[in-house]
């Protein structure tokens, strides 16, 4: 039994998903695609081995031949399309962010609650990365003791000039926020943003790097270096420090080369090679869950909460002080979601 | 379009393949299974979500609903089932070894030549391992210069007591032989086996470890440590040394743990976690090739030649001298096979 | 020509210095020792191959056979003995801290200024550690670009129960403060201390770990994790992040062991094996400088300034806010000292 | 009490020893130097802070102000000067090789036996390298079980064109031979040399690399890759494989740099930075031993035996077969020497 998938948004991310679903995921087919740019839609349809091309995304959602939907369109459209899926009663894997504000995310949460069942998964792919899964396994085994601190580094080679400095938190650091909540199984309650001297490569009003210090309800301290013009490579690192030991991500190199006075390992140029396995595993797990009417991964509640933490970071960045995270109580529909 | 697969042999390896084909490979279905042990066959059929159970392996091959066959039965049956597939004109992925002797492998080669097209792939999964692929990419890029030496290590925790000492080469070291031929694109022409003091854990007549020194037609020297009672873990390592530099496999750890005076990384207990990605990629590539009537990976010729190198090792082990590799000329059907 | 040294304080640290000076430093002899505990003094005298034992530390300073003095007595005595050396016009290598408060350190600075020449070196041995020296060399070469951030980790297995929680900064983190100033050649102007949930192993009023966020005059952000009950080992790490790249300390392991499912490297149990080479190099450099009437390493000004930064951390710890560092202007006597 | 040292031979190696003895070894002074080239002798005398310059090396040995002698002159002179020291009853640290043939080495052994006490140390500095010492400590602790194999790699950037191909074994690989004997506490009884395709950078008659396979009396197999035109760096590696685990040298990097798509660590350009600590420790230990009339490190017996193993390698290289090592029985004077 094949899960027939519709994909809304066929840019770099959407096209990658079409290819992965078509060529490397079991039990899935891409039945329909939509993109505001018809050429991109056509290219994706062809990569899917011949999918229907819709000219209206809401029609795609309602297409009787579509069992489940991937939303990979521009961020400001996520809310509308996720809502359309919820209303149509179809599972949706929505690229992060779920919506552009926590308030908008909350509307999706309310829509799900209204329908009484979870249909939304937010595309926080790190939850499917083998290294983060192993870090969680080690932590859960108890061998390093209770958590005290989590150190994270998130570096990009460069950044689209169109993005505002707030995107360092809302679009980039939000991955670190989500994975911290997932690893620790605790909610974040406050945020302080420190601002190093900005890199000389960025325009004057653009604060890069940023250094977040977050604290959970249980007191665990999380620090996140976000640096999106790091030039040398795409680099994600983390160390979880417990009372008795620590566990760190190992940089994912396949080989080591000795040449010209150096022994070296390649650093990925962007997030796609680094998280390729995670994306495939995420899509496979989502398709498997769709096939049996279940959900997995980050929920709408996770999308809402991580957005709320990011907003606390923005308030701290602007005030220069520690800002509390403001969230509504967790609805019972989501009592397991951070697990 | 789904490639319908029949699986002959549903022990550990066969069952793993059934699961991977069912749950993690795109465009594949397991339609039929056979095992001499009916319970194992039934378990595999169920893991496939309900495949037909054949009681005669040759019937499975002839089953009109079977497009392609995986052979994972005991080694001494490989030749018969691979031949049956060739005769039926169906693609077959045969676990290594292709047959128990190079002479038997040659019969499969001749059967393929008779049919005029390549249908056999031998399950040398290292050719699909991301680390070996990256080693080959670096070597092919020319950055380390021409090859001079290849160092390999192949260690197992322990070994089935039923196996003879010759299996260290024919069943274990043959992986290193095949991958050396593939990496270097050169044939091996001679073999010398050195014998360290045997581990105190093995029975008196069982030579473990063994240390192979092989030389290619172009003079590249290959050394392979085979140690199948290494106790501490399953460990495969390699370094390719060129005129200007070298490239080494990095042990595939996801995380590093600091605890109790040590920083450590896990070593896999057996080959399955180590080569899990390679097996999935091998099956996906084979299914993709089947779908378009092509072949990939190690050919029957590779199966034959690697077996011939292993036999030269056995002759050296017995004589204490360097033994030449004896192979027939490469048929034109296989002119690209080591690539 | 041998520099004759007097050692005040023959506890663990002082005795180590006696041994290193006697057995592994060229051009040095330990001529005299003092310790409030006569047995310890006698043991040190014997380790020196027969040094004079003084019963009054000030007499040791004045001993005509003593060319230079090492002060390794309890912290609260450092000021007095350093002052005695300055007054006697003799070079002194004073273990950190130079004095218990920045105000007291300033008195030593004033005494030196009064004498018109630098005689005091503070025992910040990291400045002589091969790894920090190499980090500085890479940074100074310009290959990673201008500095933006410095991440530091400073973990101890456990901590003397007699010490107050303020010692995490004044006795432990002060090493990280000094090395940051030395690496960056910039002064620190503000400090914020974040407090993770304390380890369950410490008494209720003892804040461990602490997480310092410091900023330099040029805007470089420095974060320092101090965790003195880390249990698993003594672990000092650092990464200096520049505009184009980063440079990190490599954990100093000599060998790697594979055993029982793990590949591991030892983590030092305490600071002595980790910084053994640094201590020897520090003593050799100091002796060499004494022989020609010069100074090297951290100056009294460095001792004063690092103490002032530590005090800003304590104010932040108590207020929960960012605290400015309060220092007097740098006297001309010290214009090169942070270099 | 200072040990007054005379240094014969003030080329690169001798001058390094003069500097180390003068600046970084406790209890030593360089009292006299000799070199056939007067300018080199003068430079060394000055580096020693004013040593006597002898114009006759034998006079230097007899100089009443010289307690002990370092021989760092050309290889063919070692025998003569070592003999002169033995005859004068003075301790001598002779750079390897002790003499140019095992027969010549044996004459030094006989001279020592004649005098009835050990005076000769051969400069196998690896025995003082912290990494090899730690490897030995781990092995001796029993945690990896009894030894089965030792893998070694010995690479140089390039090689003096004046040296013959036999020097790959007699001057370079002899370090690996000595350290294997020392680590394993076993004598080597046979040698087989395999010859990879030579590097295209060397002249036609020059076999580089060479691959030695040695076996000990207890059956341990030792393989040594010697490659003296490796171009990329000076690289010494080793792994000792036991029945239960293995222990490997860790490449000695102080920092790791991330830049331009790579994370890398420097590889030393030649043996001096790599073994700088070992040379200092060797000289300190030798001076300490001289001061109390003892010996340490590699003995004349070690110099003789390692030379005999190297000669077996040359016989194998020429015959293409395994060659037995031919040594005389170990005299009782040396019963502890390999320890």
Protein architecture, described:
Four copies of one chain form a homotetramer. By secondary structure, chain A is of the alpha/beta class. Chain A folds into two domains: 3-124 and 278-296, Rossmann fold, CATH 3.40.50; 127-275 and 301-334, Dihydrodipicolinate Reductase, domain 2. Helix content of chain A is 36%, strand content 24%. In chain A, the strands form three sheets. A seven-stranded mixed beta sheet of chain A has the order 12-11-7-10-9-8-15. In chain A, strand 5, helix 5 (102-115) and strand 6 form a beta-alpha-beta unit. The radius of gyration of chain A is 20 Å and the shape is globular. Chain A starts with a strand and ends in a 15-residue tail after the last strand. At the A-D interface, strand 14 of A face strand 14 of D. Chains A, B, C, D: Keywords: NAD, Oxidoreductase. Chains A, B, C, D: Involved in the oxidation of myo-inositol (MI) to 2-keto-myo-inositol (2KMI or 2-inosose). Chains A, B, C, D: Residues 141-326 form the Gfo/Idh/MocA-like oxidoreductase C-terminal domain.
Produce the secondary structure layout.
The structure is a homotetramer of 339-residue chains.
Chain A: E1 3-8, H1 12-23, E2 28-34, H2 38-47, E3 52-54, H3 57-62, E4 68-71, H4 78-88, E5 92-94, H5 102-115, E6 120-122, H6 130-140, E7 147-155, H7 167-184, E8 188-194, E9 210-216, E10 221-227, E11 235-242, E12 245-249, E13 255-259, E14 262-266, H8 271-291, H9 300-319, E15 323-324
Parallel strand pairs in A: 1-2, 1-4, 2-3, 4-5, 5-6, 7-10
Antiparallel strand pairs in A: 7-11, 8-9, 8-15, 9-10, 11-12, 13-14
């Amino acid at each position: 039994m094949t899960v027939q998938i519709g994909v809304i948004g066929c840019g770099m991310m959407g096209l990658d998903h079409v290819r992965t679903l078509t060529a490397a995921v079991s039990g899935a087919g891409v039945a329909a695609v939509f993109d505001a740019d018809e050429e991109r839609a056509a290219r994706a349809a062809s990569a899917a081995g011949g999918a229907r091309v819709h000219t209206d995304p809401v029609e795609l959602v309602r297409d009787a031949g579509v069992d489940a939907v991937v939303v990979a369109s521009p961020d400001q459209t996520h809310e509308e399309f996720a809502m359309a899926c919820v209303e149509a009663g179809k599972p949706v894997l929505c690229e992060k962010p779920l919506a552009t504000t926590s308030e908008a995310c909350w509307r999706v949460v309310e829509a799900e609650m209204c329908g009484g069942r979870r249909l939304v998964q937010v595309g926080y792919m790190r939850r499917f990365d083998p290294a983060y899964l192993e870090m969680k396994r080690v932590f859960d085994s108890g061998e390093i003791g209770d958590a005290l601190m989590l150190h994270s580094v998130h570096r990009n080679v460069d950044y689209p000039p169109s993005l505002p400095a707030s995107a360092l938190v809302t679009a980039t650091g939000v991955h670190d926020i989500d994975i911290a909540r997932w690893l620790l199984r605790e909610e974040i309650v406050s945020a302080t943003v420190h601002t190093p001297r900005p890199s000389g490569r960025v325009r004057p009003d653009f604060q890069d790097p940023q250094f977040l210090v977050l604290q959970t309800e249980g007191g665990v301290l999380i620090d996140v270096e976000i640096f999106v013009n790091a030039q040398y490579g795409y680099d994600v690192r983390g160390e979880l420090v417990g009372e008795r030991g620590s566990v760190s991500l190992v940089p994912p190199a396949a080989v080591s080369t000795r040449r010209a006075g150096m022994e070296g390992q390649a650093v990925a140029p962007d997030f796609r090679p680094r998280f390729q396995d995670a994306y495939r595993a995420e899509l496979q797990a989502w398709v498997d869950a769709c096939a049996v009417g279940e959900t997995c991964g980050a929920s709408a509640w996770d999308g809402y909460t991580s957005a709320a933490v990011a907003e606390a970071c923005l308030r701290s960045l602007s005030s220069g002080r520690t800002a509390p995270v403001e969230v509504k109580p967790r609805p019972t529909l989501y009592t397991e979601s951070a697990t």
